[in-house]
Amino acid sequence: MAHLATLSQLHVSLAAPAGSDTTLRRSAFKVQNISFGGKSWAPALALDLKSRNAGLTKRLSVCMSVQQASRSKVAVSPIELEDAKEPPLNTYKPKEPYTATIVSVERIVGPNAPGETCHIVIDHGGNVPYWEGQSYGVIPPGENPKKPGNPHNVRLYSIASTRYGDSFDGKTTSLCVRRAVYYDPETGKEDPSKNGVCSNFLCNSKSGDKVQITGPSGKIMLLPENDPNATHIMIATGTGVAPYRGYLRRMFMEAVPKYKFGGLAWLFLGVANNDSLLYDDEFAKYLQDYPDHFRYDKALSREQKNKSGGKMYVQDKIEEYSDEIFKLLDDGAHIYFCGLKGMMPGIQDTLKKVADQRGEKWDEKLSQLKKNKQWHVEVY
After folding, report:
1. Is 378 an active-site residue?
2. Which is catalytic among the residues 61, 158, 167, 301?
3. Are 168 and 31 a contacting pair, CB within 8 Å?
């Protein structure tokens, strides 16, 4: 049972219902010492999407920032995480990984989504700090079948939280993981022996389980903060939305003293259907609270049609807004791509076609974007 104080007091105490069905629940966010409008509160909030607890969902707001009567932001700590001039890199390496602890594993897609995607919160105790846009490596338990006697290879996962984590205290990180399942093409049945080792380990984990992590790694997807009024165009397929969740929480949810975002963040997210949308509740709230600073366009390939009557993919959305996107790029906007590597050929073809229509040479334009450090790609 949840107990909710009046919003006018801005003092909220929430508890997740015991024994709720985690397989259908959106990610859980547990927070201590959050202050809004001079008041403090300590919720343990379980967000419920597409689940049987629909009544509770309607009574509760869909994310931390939603508890506000105004657009107050969440206090974060330790602020010293802002002091570093350079991002942390490879603090822990594969031969000496850090042993972290699973906090929670939550299924974050609905019943009609193809496949399962989980939001996984990991406690690193503040010992493996990172910046938004970086990745953690995970070493699943067991022996590498290709190298008997050796551990599994490291699998990289884009981090889906800000440096302060979902608990806003700098001690956790979050990963967005799709369970990799192999189906035999002849029988149509699942073959567990060929399932993704690391994704299944993570999605099967329970609170308290240990996990070996490395990193953080990566610089290409770091959020440029030298201009707080810049435009950021973010293009994702599926779990490629992970780094953008971190960006957007930093821009719109957290009270970061040294970063006051006043630009435009424009997210394009491509998934199969409405049940496959990831963190949609958070993004919808930013759209409501910051309509002049956030735009959000979805490409649902199994539910929407493009202008030619075919399936709607993210490149179709890019083409739809191509004139505006190109003008923003000409004005210095950053553009990011994250997701399966198969997304890039279609996107590149679309951008080249648009450039040709505009009388521009795409190869030259792309070269200039890269030279200006406006072009950021992380695909897998």
Report:
1. yes
2. 158
3. yes
Contacts of 312 (CB under 8 A, 6+ apart): 299, 300, 301, 303, 304, 305, 306
Please count the other Cβ atoms lying within 10 Å of the Cβ belonging to residue 372: 11
pLDDT in tens, 327-340: 999 999 999 999 99
Given 92, 130, 136, 157, the catalytic residue: 157
List of residues 6+ apart from 295 with CB closer than 8 A: 264, 265, 266, 267, 287
Instruction: Confirm if 298 and 249 have CB atoms less than 8 A apart.
Output: no
**Alpha-carbon gap, residue 126 to 81, rounded angstroms:** 10
Claim: this prediction has a pTM higher than 0.85: no
247 is catalytic: no
For 273-293, write each residue's pLDDT tens digit. 999 999 999 999 999 999 999
> Is-contact 349 315, C-beta < 8 A?
yes
> What letter does residue 56 receive in the DSSP assignment?
H
Q: Are strands 98-107 and 210-217 parallel, antiparallel or unpaired?
A: antiparallel
* Phi then psi dihedrals of residue 214, to 5 deg: -130, 170
Reply yes or no on whether 157 is catalytic: yes
Q: Measure the CA–CA gap between 180 and 44, rounded to whole angstroms.
A: 30
Q: Give backbone dihedrals phi and psi of 33, rounded to 5 degrees, phi first.
A: 55, 55
Count Cβ atoms below 10 Å from residue 327 Cβ, excluding itself. Answer: 11
Tell me if 200 sits within 8 A of 220, measured CB to CB.
no
Integer CA distances (angstroms), 38 to 9, 35, 169, in order: 10, 6, 18
Is 96 annotated in the active site? no
Residue 316 dihedral angles phi and psi, to the nearest 5°: -70, -35
Spatial CB neighbours of 99, under 8 Å, sequence gap ≥ 6: 210, 211, 212
Q: What is the pLDDT at residue 65? A: 37
User: Is-catalytic flag, 182?
Assistant: no
Closest by alpha carbon to 24, among 114, 105, 110?
110
